[in-house]
């Protein structure tokens, strides 16, 4: 992969929870964490479920052929975070039955890991993230507020998400991780643990509309994800990696071009 | 450029002010603004001056040849934000004399715009950003605090930045922009205007150590930069651009793969 991008990247793949690049979002926290190490490539698509994610994935994750030709970055790690929209109640096109959700997530893992996949990328670590809890009351309130702000166009929204059903998808995601032998962040449990319980009042600080995470919610995820990376994939710990380009105080003042070329050579040779 | 990255990107090039991917930083705000439109490629290198930036630029900005082979993203816009470190007082290797600073910035613009440059990229808009004001008292305090926190190792730091000298570099940057016919954000003036004056007290909310910007400081920059983009390069206004991948409610539910392929085809054909 040529010089406009670094050689290596981390891809965040999922729905609106991934797409957010707001203050304190997962993407912002990861971009800061991997600053001057890896680019963070945000491939979050708001509202998408696991059915729709598959054809999208096939377009945003390079083929083996493209990667080998240097046409794409090496994705060292991909987070796959889907389930919140699959768990929408039947009646919405977003709803994906539990079994198909599991099959879809397994298929996404296979698209990366199976040698027969055109996207096979043996160097890419896969981490699944499951759906966080939903605060039903806050969610329906947010939907009605939005409907009112748009002049009450169309039918008044009704409740389309359920705490217990979302939990089934969260548990199913962990089962897929176990079946496929990949790591997972159990975000559902992490948030319930941080909140000290499952009640709307306890969960409130972690969600701004009952579904989407506040910075405090993302902090729980980031802490769990970064701990997992450091313990399971120490080679991906940014604090142990060299920065891209030397620290400014280490620049060879007499021959900066040579110093940089040397860094570049080492990097391309895989020595950095 | 293959599928792990989008075809088009915006590159932020500069020093630590660019490198920051913290809450409310330029990079975070731009990544949120261009969400599902362009990738934001952060190429900020803390402590670097314009001398050292040139060999780095030659390594992070693709050659024309690489781009034409599809080996790199098209950089639709690059911000070049250097000067704060060039303006460090003589005695530090960071210091670059004013005339050479101007020549270096002009050379960076030429590396993108000159047909004889190996990095020539006629589709890349260039926007220069000048150095913001410095709060001398806050900066020396921060340096001494850091020195104390490291056990007072080495000599006690002295003042190495000056308000009036930094202003000369800020003005020089605008002169280069005028000479080269590229747009610029006059961040110096924007911050002084927002602050209502140049006194340390008035400037305080915009800097956390007298040099580096707070979220409030970056907000001034982002507002100026995004307004400039919208007025001068309306084709780069993300609010007028199609999202990468359709809105979830527009997915063809019967044939999602065909719908996505069609979007992809249009995108590759330059119709999106």
TrEMBL record, chains A, B:
Gene3D superfamilies the record matches: SGNH hydrolase
GO MF entries: hydrolase activity
InterPro entries: Iah1-like (IPR045136), SGNH_hydro (IPR013830), SGNH_hydro_sf (IPR036514)
SUPFAM superfamilies registered for this protein in UniProt: SGNH hydrolase
Source taxon at top rank: Eukaryota
Keywords: Hydrolase
Protein name: GDSL Lipase/Acylhydrolase
